[in-house]
């Protein structure tokens, strides 16, 4: 009987991983639990576009629509303020572009002689052909063009330029929308070549033009000309109402003599210019007629233009030189602030008080300029856009009225872009250092919306390091190569200003402790600065041969890995250094990658080596003995070297590279403080031909995150891996905690228990443990392989599975397996109990007693006297007639129906009586 019950209670365990459609969890993150590339500055998103040099720029009044002419039929258009660009195809090779001030979709582009117009944002273009009035000389060099505000249903397109034989300045206009519209020239109108202050001879060059912002009211266009004979720049006004220029149009002080060369014997041969009008400019009100003009004149000698180049403010009664001896390519005034771009350099000049009697003019910080020349500037709402030409030219934005510029897009990098280094803040702000193969360097910042170039420099010295303060992502340091002492520091995330700094020795590595404290290393020494690298303390020896990597672990806490397998640490800001053990080192050779949980007694130091086939080791500060503990099963790999190490959220990551297989990745353990030489680590490897080899430490982590970053030096790409399973746990679904499992006592067959759990992220392989205790020291053998998502059920027989006993409590938990694809922590623990062996009640059947014998009754026999036989006649059977069923009762009529019936009956009776009474007897 005992053996029979044993067979009944031998319950086989059936493990069930329910399909994700039944028990699916919302993914912790978008990560696929695999290495993936990050979007970085590249031609893909128009941040770096090789050989694109912006010739001209036009910004619509919405501040977001921007058109860029680049010297070809391809016109670039942005609708998000220059972050991304699309292309439009015009009929002419555009070197100039202008947009209507009241319609972002109406813009014009011009080559040297012809103009195209688009009224639908570039979807299509209409050719306005060569700029030439019928029967007159055509333009030979368009210097500028503009579009007027709407005048009813028309817009005027204006062109300033030159015609030859002889060389003369001219202005043309086209009335867009008018029937039979054609180009009309204006230098034949009265007042252009005669009279006016300083008008000694006809102008030879028309440099710039601008329509009045009140064009619908005053019908005026303003023009800057240059007279190469008189070496004089003039400012003209034309009135379309009068079809007259200057004094002939009742503007008595026009043309205004802007400037004239006073040095005798000098001859200027050419010039360029730009105009910006006060937004309140009204041609009929002399008090509002304020204009700003920028000039650049070229002469036969280098100094010939000194008397004419500069920024000028014009009114009807005065000319004020805000800044001279600077060649100005563009200018823009928003009513408060003035900005102007230089021709021969990359400077932007600015004034916050251009209307003052003594205005001040300053320029952008040297390290916050866009590279290139011929700077075009334009206001876009409260921001300033700028674009440059030449090598490493770019499109950029200023958010501080022109004091500093960040590159947004269309950077003219001349070849392969090399990613040098990067840093990531806890808030997710990314800094990326890039190098062009022609030795232009840039630091890009990503703060959640778009990449911006916050530092750029053309230099023959490599930029090698970027570091940020752990608790202040706006504190940024850049170091030039390891043979240089040059540093750059910004307290604004590179946004507005950089300071040039000089270290006390060459910078092999750098660590930032806080907003003001920074360390550099050189050889075996470390240097400290407490004032943002402005001054430095003396060299302090670490005791290692050469410092390979230095890290800050908190206030005054430093750790250094050496090139000879050694490690040292400091708890007093690098003033003194200690070794974990005087003679015991983590490795005998190679570069040491090192990190630590802390530097107090009881904390742990972790180290890995650049030599292949090595362990990952640990040292506990304050321990006795001389042995570093091996904390990984086997090694990182026969051909695998460590390239970085880091500790984040209690998880230890070791970045590595297998040169033979040409793959990289990381290995990690969730229990670094208790791991030993039998501990299996999880690994996440990349695909082939990826090399995480950035020096000195290729692993990039940020505080509070287990997202791993690394640079692929083979393809100049950035990869990341969001390790969601370091914090996410498998969530158990069934059976419920403390469930009681009943047993089928009748069949004695296998009884199934269905275990189910949610699927964290993209995990597919799991480990299940069942034990007799909640600490899982008495684990039961389950048998078989880890459960995979593709296996709906895996049934284990009583002999090959898990035998469970009655009246026993069991505990179970689940985790993602180390190959599933990477190990997670264990889930919470649940329990279940197998019900006890309660036999069924015994049913006793008692037979009924026999029935008593029947009594014997003796009766006297009756005497029956029968009469004589008689004849009995049986009448026929009666005919049975079944009456029909009574008719159903009539429906009860409403009361008013009965009233009508009664009244009707009374009337009938009355009629009968009347007939009877009136009937005559026969």
What is the strand content? 35-45%
- Named CATH architecture of the domain at 1-28 and 728-839: Sandwich
How many H/I helical runs?
Answer: 3
CATH topology of the domain at 1-28 and 728-839: Immunoglobulin-like
Largest sheet: 5 strands, antiparallel
Question: Can you tell me about this structure?
Answer:
The chain is mostly beta strands. It has a domain at 1-28 and 728-839: Immunoglobulin-like (Sandwich), CATH 2.60.40. It is 4% helix and 38% strand. It has three helices and 64 strands. Strands 15, 16, 17, 18 and 19 form a five-stranded antiparallel β-sheet that branches. It has a five-stranded mixed β-sheet with strand order 58-64-63-60-61, with no helix packed on it. The longest helix has 24 residues, at 895-918. The chain starts with a helix and ends with a helix. The model is unreliable at 1-30, 195-199, 790-800, 861-875, 877-883, 888-893 and 918-922 (pLDDT under 50).
Key attributes of the depicted protein:
five-stranded antiparallel beta sheet; five-stranded mixed beta sheet; 922 residues; Immunoglobulin-like; disordered C terminus; mainly beta
